[in-house]
Write a structure and sequence with these properties.
The chain is of the alpha/beta class. It is built from ten helices and seven strands. It is about 45% helix and about 15% strand. The two termini are about 25 Å apart.
Length: about 290
């Protein structure tokens, strides 16, 4: 089993990077990518534990991209380093994320809910705070009963405490990933909220800006949709990847490590026949380690 899209406590997952790799080993994952949101801070720890567990480790990141509808996330897979360009992108996104969190905290006060940004940073020991962190503390303080309730009542798009994301320019993000030795891959493309009628034209433009791969297989879609996306990737000569988007079984019970669309295991071919050969072209050796 493999998984090319997972998260740790370095962003909004529930396991530390080391714990995630130990958990993956128990679930018989042989190849795993850690792709935390807008940060590379957990990669060295995960890489060391992967060595201990005998797991092939793929250093990665998931970047927030500026997009007019839905959300556009881009994976950087097979990173060798955090280049100056990637550091600039991470710094920009961190500041924008902080601004968004401060605005959400202020909006919550209108409903008598006190959850301060600094409180979240201290509790979770990360500046990479997101809505799931707010939701967890709101449950702990008794404002709501479940984390999902936070999104349904306050944080989902159109709800009273939702604040629009500000993402990185796509061309800059692509260059940031490539300069770090990675392969830019569009994550869960259906989250862009682009109709199927406009999907081919949209993907053509994205590919022209340097995105080299498409995450056709994601746990949040149906098999027929994944197959359709894979066919679209082939049309543009893009590699195809897949993953669970695992954050922890207590966060999203529907996202199990190593499992993707249609509750199928992530196929090994997406590493052996797709990403690995691409990294060989770039690095000459797909097993080169992340340098920090």
């Amino acid at each position: 089993m493999i998984d090319l899209h997972t998260h740790s406590k370095a962003s909004d997952g529930t396991y530390s990077p080391g714990e995630l790799l130990r958990y993956a080993a128990k679930k018989n994952i042989k190849t795993l990518a850690l792709t935390d949101h807008d940060t590379t801070s957990g990669l060295l720890e995960a890489q060391e534990e992967a060595r201990i567990q005998g797991i092939t480790f793929v250093p990665g990141i998931e970047l927030t991209i500026d997009w007019p509808t839905g959300e556009f996330h881009m994976l950087g897979l097979g990173l060798q380093r955090t280049s100056p360009e990637l550091k600039d992108t991470i710094l920009f996104l961190r500041q924008e994320r902080r601004n968004r969190n401060l605005k959400m905290s202020e909006k919550l006060k209108d409903f008598g809910i006190q959850v301060d940004y600094d409180e979240l940073v201290e509790k979770f020991q990360t500046e990479n705070i997101g809505r799931p962190h707010f939701a967890q503390v709101m449950v702990e303080k008794g404002y709501i009963k479940t984390r999902q309730e936070a999104f349904d009542r306050y944080f989902a798009s159109g709800r009273p405490c939702y604040v629009n994301r500000v993402g990185e320019d796509l061309a800059k993000a692509v260059q940031a990933v490539k300069s770090s030795g990675g392969v830019p891959v569009q994550a869960h493309p259906l989250s862009m909220y682009v109709s199927w009628g406009k999907m081919e034209e949209t993907m053509s433009g994205i590919h022209e800006k340097g995105v080299m791969g498409l995450e056709a297989w994601h746990s949040g879609i149906r098999i027929a949709e994944a197959e359709r996306l894979e066919k679209l990737a082939r049309k543009f000569g893009m590699i195809v990847t897949g993953g669970s988007d695992f954050h922890g079984e207590k966060v999203r019970a529907d996202r199990r490590i190593g499992i993707t669309a249609g509750k199928r295991p992530v196929e090994e071919r997406l590493w052996e026949d797709e990403l690995k050969p691409m990294l060989e072209k770039i690095h000459g050796d797909p097993s080169l380690e992340f340098e920090g």
